[in-house]
Amino acid sequence: MPEIVIKYSLSSTNAYAKKLADSGKNAVVVALKQTQGKGRLGRKWFSPKGGLWFSVILRPKSASLIPVMASLAILRSLKKLGVKGKLKWPNDVYVNGKKICGILSESSFSQSLEYVVVGIGINTNFPLEKLPKELRKTATTLMEEGVGANNMELLESVLLEIKSLMMEKKTKIIREWIGNAMRKVSINSEKLSVGGLTDEGYLVAKDLKGRKKIITEGDIRLRRPF
Ligand code: BT5
């Protein structure tokens, strides 16, 4: 196990972990709460006390499937708690159609890849009222799903699963991802069905006419039923 740094409050565990990584350290950074938790594309991640907010410093050869591995590690760990999660590209974890976890992966390159900081936020032990009103229809927490979780045990499980996924074959990882992905989505209002992932972690989808598309960035929305 790497060194685990636990802080009561941080602006963002990713920001703290990046500083450690820049000084050559490897660690897992946990905060009981974050005051400026970060989502992707400059968005906010609300991180009240009770949730599991942490960042892992990794130094892999390639960063491409790291968020995919992280999402699978969470899925496997939730399964051990009897919770069935589903994946939404690029790397959200949903339970009963609502977001329970987000992943923010940030890479640093000099000549080549130096490190990846994978930030993971899992809504565990707090009620939905701790999140802003506008998120209460789209988000859920383990507590809200009637599941009690020990944050440190969940952390240990996710870290062990990431470690084991990093030794697994790409094809196996991609197959597991597809098997757990939500299939019917839309991007920029275009309806698509999810078919798979490329080796780089891009989304392979088909439009309603059966034309294949590779989606490299952006946000997808869910179409119901999933
Ligand atoms: C994410 O971004 O989902 C990545 C979130 C990563 C958070 C972790 S916590 C530890 C580490 N340290 C950090 O500072 N960050 C990482 P994105 O796909 O952009 O989704 C952000 C959107 O999710 C927001 O715009 C809200 O709509 C919604 N959201 C915010 N907080 C939420 C929460 N706690 N639960 C569910 N949805 C939330």
Q: How is the topology of this model organized?
A:
Blueprint (H helix, E strand, L loop, with lengths): L2 E8 L2 H10 L4 E8 L17 E7 L7 H15 L4 E4 L3 E4 L2 E12 L3 E10 L28 H15 L4 H10 L4 E4 L2 E8 L5 E5 L4 E4 L5 E2 L4
Parallel strand pairs: 1-2
Antiparallel strand pairs: 2-3, 3-7, 4-5, 5-6, 6-7, 8-9, 8-12, 9-10, 10-11
Helix pairs in contact: 2-3, 2-4
The structure holds biotinyl-5-AMP (BT5).
The site of biotinyl-5-AMP (BT5) has 29 residues, from helix 1, strand 3, strand 6 and strand 7.
Describe the fold and architecture.
This protein is an alpha+beta fold and 226 residues long. Helix content is 22%, strand content 34%. The protein contains 4 helices and 12 strands. The protein has helices at residues 13-22, 66-80, 151-165, 170-179; strands spanning 3-10, 27-34, 52-58, 85-88, 92-95, 98-109, 113-122, 184-187, 190-197, 203-207, 212-215, 221-222. Strands 1-2-3-7-6-5-4 form a 7-stranded mixed sheet, sandwiched between helices. The chain has a 5-stranded antiparallel sheet with strand order 11-10-9-8-12. Helix 2 (66-80) packs across helix 3 (151-165) and helix 2 (66-80) packs across helix 4 (170-179). The longest helix is centred in the N-terminal third of the chain and has 15 residues, at 66-80. The radius of gyration is 17 Å and the shape is globular. The chain starts with a strand and ends with a strand.
